[in-house]
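The methods section describes the discrete structure representation at length, but only in general terms. The central task, working out the structure tokens from the amino acid sequence alone, is never made concrete. Nothing conveys this as quickly as seeing an actual entry. For illustration, here is how one protein appears when written out as sequence plus structure tokens:
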Amino acid sequence: MTKSTDSHDQPIGSYDIRPWGGEDMVFCWKGGLAMVNLPTMNLLSNLVRLKHVDADIFRTIRSDDQVGHEVSFRRNASGEVTHILYHGVE
């Protein structure tokens, strides 16, 4: 899962999640972060909001506003976000 943008501070960008799917796009949404799996025919129904927990660790926010599973981001030696991990899988 590699990131396609050059953001050093935020995990914003496109992450290749093969062989499990296409790609995950992480972006700013309503003052926080959100994620969507692409390709999709309905962006908003596929949108997952992310709640910041600590450093590069987030949790999904379910449709009932309860906290869901963990999503974390891995950085390289330069501090650039390079990978997205969820369910303990990179």
